[in-house]
What we know:
Blueprint: E1 2-6, E2 18-25, H1 29-45, E3 48-56, H2 66-76, E4 82-85, H3 95-107, E5 111-114, H4 124-137
Parallel strand pairs: 2-3, 2-4, 4-5
Antiparallel strand pairs: 1-3
Amino acid sequence: xxxxxxxxxxxxxxxxxxxxxxxxxxxxxxxxxxxxxxxxxxxxxxxxxxxxxxxxxxxxxxxxxxxxxxxxxxxxxxxxxxxxxxxxxxxxxxxxxxxxxxxxxxxxxxxxxxxxxxxxxxxxxxxxxxxxxxxxxxxxxxxxxxx
Length: 147
């Protein structure tokens, strides 16, 4: 397992941002970096905050991967609220197995998601509303202008 590092102090997470673990299974550093970048883009496009990046060897069964165990532990102790993988095949042999892993995350009050290239669509009104809510949660200004 390679722990790329704690990216953000979990105690100082900005209200409104969801802390997530970025997980990759790759044989080389270059491939791992590419997979983590894809997962990072997916997370930041959704205003999630990557707090931990983990890399394991794909040849090792998932239950024996120390990085995966660390990611699940981060969900259990609420260091993170979700795990982002760049491809479901890194953690599951098929969709049924991936669904079972999603249930495992859900049982811990969290989520498991596969990074996709799709960016969530937001209308200008949604962007404004999210900005106002974020500012209000951080003590910036009251909830004026929310409809």
